[in-house]
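Example 9 (inverse folding). The structure is encoded as follows.
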């Protein structure tokens, strides 16, 4: 399976871009979705979280209190390390399972921490959705209703814009209007189909 790694900093519009590829029939394995599911109600990982932090880590219905946990791990780096050690192996296993099960012409692995978690090793090509840090801050605060301080913490925990661009094979510029995205995605989609066709031929010969 030919895998396109898709990444971008918080607020970059990565999900909007992956949705546009999905509209072309391309399957998307979303690391954020897999990560959320790893801590679903009744999961062993959520039981471990409750055992460590108590009922304060849960909502009244027994599901994870994600806002509480997010604040906890940003305030205490050692707790972030513990949570990563718990969930990352589960997330990686499920992502690989979904990548191998994909049946579209190629498959997208969408992950905000594609570089940081060394997921590029599973990718044939890396596409970065690029925006300025000022745009990241503005869009994230408007979308998530979080403080400026928390946005800064999230940005600081991710690879820098320069690091992402250095790792990119392709770049989508999303500093402008959303209406400018479909044409960029369409162009890249056609290029990827050609690359997949070319790699298939080389394997057959």
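The amino acid assigned to each position is listed next.
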């Amino acid at each position: 399976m030919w895998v396109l790694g898709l990444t971008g900093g918080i607020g970059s519009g990565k999900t909007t871009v992956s949705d546009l590829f999905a509209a072309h029939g391309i399957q998307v394995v979303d690391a954020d979705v897999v990560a959320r599911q790893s801590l679903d109600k009744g999961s062993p990982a959520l039981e471990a979280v409750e055992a460590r932090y108590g009922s304060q880590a849960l909502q009244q219905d027994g599901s994870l209190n994600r806002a509480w946990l997010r604040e906890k791990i940003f305030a205490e780096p050692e707790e972030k390390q513990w949570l990563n050690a718990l969930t990352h192996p589960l997330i990686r296993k499920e992502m690989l399972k979904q990548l191998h099960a994909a049946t579209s012409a190629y498959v997208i692995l969408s992950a905000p921490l594609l570089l940081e978690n060394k997921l590029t090793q599973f990718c044939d090509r890396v596409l970065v959705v690029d925006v300025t840090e000022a745009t990241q801050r503005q869009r994230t605060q408007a979308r998530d209703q979080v403080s400026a301080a928390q946005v800064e913490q999230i940005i600081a925990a991710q690879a820098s814009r320069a690091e992402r661009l250095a790792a990119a094979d392709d770049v989508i510029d999303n500093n402008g209007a959303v209406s400018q995205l479909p044409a960029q995605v369409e162009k890249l989609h056609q290029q990827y189909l050609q690359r997949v066709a070319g790699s298939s031929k080389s394997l057959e010969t």
